[in-house]
Amino acid sequence: MRPFTYVLPTSLEQAAEAATQPDTIVKAAGIDIVDRMKERLVTPQKVVNLLPLKRELSQIAEQNGEVTIGAMVTLTQLQEAKQLQGRAYDGLRRAASTTGTPQVQNRATVAGNLLQFTRCWYVRSEAFRCLHGGRGPTCLAMTGDNRYHAVMGWSDCVRVHPSNLAPALLALGAEYTTRAGEAVRRRKLADLFPADPRAQNPEHTLEDGEIVTALHLPAQPADTRLGYAESREKQSFDWATTACAVRVVMAGGKITAADLVLGAVGPVPMAKPQAAQLLVGKEPSEKLFLRVAEAAFAGATPLAFNAYKLPIGKAVVRAALEEATR
Amino acid sequence: MSTRNRDTGAPREQVEIPREQVEITVGYRALPGKDQQDRLEKITVEPTEGDAPPWDANTPYKVVGSDLDRVDGFAKATGRAKYAYDQNFPDLQQAMILRAPIARGTLTALDLDEARRMPGVTAVVALKDVGNKVRFVGDAIAAVAAPTLDLARDAIEKIRADYDQEEHNVEYLMSGDAPLLSMGGEVDDEWPADDDIDALLAKATHSHSGTYRTEVQTHSSLETHGNVARFDQKHLDVWSSTQATFGVRGELARALRQRGVDVESVEVHSEYVGGGFGSKFSAGIEGLACCLLAHEAQKPVKLMLDRFEEHTTAGNRPSALMQVRGALDENGRITVWDWRSFGGCGFNGSGGAVRHPSAYLGKAKVRQSHKDIACDTDPARSMRAPGYPQGWFGAELFLDELAAKAGLDPLALRLKNDDEAMRLDQWKFGAERFGWAEARAKQNEPGARYLTGAGLASARWGQLGNHGGRNPHGITCRIHNDGSVESRSGAQDIGTGLKTVLTMLTAEELGIAPARVRATTGHTSDPSGPGSGGSTTTPSLAPAVRHAAYLAAQKLVALVADHLGVPLDEVRCSAGKVGTDKAQLSWTDACKLIGQNPIEAHGERFPNYKQDPFHRGVCGAQFAEVRVDSWTGEVQVTRMFGIQDCGLVIAKKLAESQVLGAMIQGVSYALHEQRIMDQRSGRMLNGDFLRYKITGTKDLPALDCYLHSVANGHDNTGAAGLGEPPSTASAAAIGNAVFHAIGAPVRHLPLTPDKVLAALQKAQRTPR
After folding, report:
1. What is the pLDDT of residues B409-431, one digit of tens each?
2. Measured CA distances, B620 to B500, B656, B664 (Å)
3. Does B642 share its domain with B573?
4. Architecture of domain A58-326
5. Omega into B750 within 30° of 0, i.e. cis?
6. Where would a tag sit more exposed on chain A, N or C end, judged by fewer CB atoms within 10 A?
7. A235 contacts B699? CB cut-off 8 A
8. Complex ipTM above 0.90?
């Protein structure tokens, strides 16, 4: 690890100010960034550690049905929060519970999970000069071993977005608040991910010095359920090969509203409104779920070694739907 | 597995004198359950004169076989145990190796000057000469020492190395030497003609053919390879993460002299070792580099590999491709077994041999052939039962497929064909304990998402320890006048429990509490032991531990007999006392008779008894139940049971740990582990612990094992090694359980969801 200046802010103002300095990174739990610094994949001059602000940034509060989740709420807190115990949040808690290990969940934060760097094994090795970050001329995964890579939504870089909380939060219609210097902004969570996820674009749209401070879950209608399922090669400490979060609002045995978001299949979390629309006005059935699963993966463009993600991903959609409508 | 001190079996040169004959009882008592019986017999053995009298099936034990905790468990759990990695000295230098970025070519230029000139850098050495071949990504080029790892890395980046790169291949199946595979994954080359085999296959009641594959598994020791080296004039101390202290000592002494380093003596220290699994027999290029840097710097140097280096330069279990043809007669006996295998090796094209369970083939016409295939990667090294888990997976799955064709239960097929009498008892016991019949009878509902299945496989290992050849291994036992006892071995404890074995055997022999004994391992100033390979450490050393304690006890007994004025031959050490039935001293009081110098005895490892009825090795059996998610192809192993013959059980908890640990590693091998190479760059893609998937707690089944204690009449103790035997069966049993669950074999490890789903689709989910 190269030497760096370590900043321990005592207030959010101080952190926001420090973050605007050049060649500075902001760390929360440091689950991944410390590893990348050790390997010299990231060599910042300055590291702003947000942990001193944990008390301020790890509150969970509910007002008029809207739940605000501090950016530094840990995945364990998320699972235990009394405001998030209803069926509308089942899938969110489940997604948090599958992440990493209990130790990771005790430390890792909600915002950190959303802002994860790609797991692509070409991008994450200094030995490979790939297109990501402008290090080389082409995406090496596109023609290399891409078993864990994208099957949809890719253009010049086939990385997948690794966050498993993102599909669940997106399906719930979450928003996020950031602070950059003095400026405070609140936007739709979808805006956190690049609309054009090309190699030169980072995994998120935050500007230099911009810090996520909170997430907001809008009030959910009565009998809202959130289902979440994912496929994995290993249950302990691994990332999903495909994931799906689906939100349904039930009334009179029918689905009256639905959102469906896929994870681990594209460079950003993939919302599938057309597939979700198939659910609206229908009674849950296996036949319907199979149709929705097909629609969710319609037009998918798998690579040489990841076509397996299609049947598995469809099964995961079906599983998430079964869980939500059970 | 190759060990540094192979048992040649040759008698030591000495005049044959008639030996005392001792009758002992060997074998085992009836296993629990139906239709089991004692399998005991009396044999006569001739111990070497002066050896401790043999233990046998009738020996009453006080300490041996009890569930004493691992004696160094607390030190390990609290971080007090110092591994090579933990050694620190004033002015310690950190070191790093420059690794070749190409898989094949020639080193054409190497300029170390700029690195040498960097302020702070204390040593730079070349490890490859210009003009030498580069054989794989990670091949060592040069090494640097500096006060910090960061500075060492900066210096590494200043080394200029040029290469003449050649075309490489890191996938052995793409080699011109590899057989062709069909689209279905079958070896597509014609079998060589053989009239007998062809005739047997043609007339068989049931015949079958299949091709099986396994992938490269890395050893993944938690402590990486590495050393700390410190010169004091011409004496060299090396703290090494090794499984062969004496091997490393000899290797370094030779290599350093050849390199012109003035070294008169080398002492290796390995009191704690964070795993080896067969990869740590040699000092390796990293060990040599560490010593050369320490010599040049004239300061102590630490060089430990990082995780990527560990995955890519420190050996692996090679991949295997196996094709089998075989047949059954109308009685379910195997009549023909035609086997050919191919090992996917590193650049040296060796070490890929595959073993298969020959105990089933006693009545069969057998043909077997093997070919190692080279590719431009790090060479294979022995890994926990080299060649066995691969071959057992292929062979045992083939047998289950054959059994299914014949409408036979897999257990019935084993019972008809297994020539191991002991394992026939184990199969019956294990089937009852596991609930085999019930597990096999369970029907999966048509259309059910989760499918369950059960499988089994045999375990086998063939080595029982050695005495060290011309210079037999030994143990030092000391009894101090404060009543404390030392048992010392220069051999290493790689986590398998040698310290606990020393403690328990010494306590048993001296009739004292284990807490009085302090065991020390891993310093080459103490008597030698074998490299920890082939499951030989315990069986090689246990008899010497006993002998040392036995000799030490005789000296104490003499002091006590003299003190009490009782006949020498009536004095015993037992139950914390020394004396006769009538006159005794407590252990503490007896030890007060010892002067300033402790009693010291050197125990020797004598050759095994010639009679040795169980000399062929140990056997076991394992059972596994799985639950397969037919939607996603995910496999969860839900429970496993293993029964394992392990000679005399010395430390029960540690022995169980060995068996359960082998099963855990087997789950990992069956479901997760595989080295993934990038063909274009020749570089490993998953060289860390996140992408190289090792089973975790959530992936583990409920584990159960039964230690089958057998008095084997092998030597004065009758211990058998346990590292390797149980690791032969686990992946095979899991593979068979998946076959049972989904009705189609998945013939390629690891059983990842993509492969399982493909097999399911092929089987079209036909309910069984």
Report:
1. 999 999 999 999 999 999 999 99
2. 24, 13, 16
3. no
4. 2-Layer Sandwich (3.30)
5. yes
6. C
7. yes
8. yes
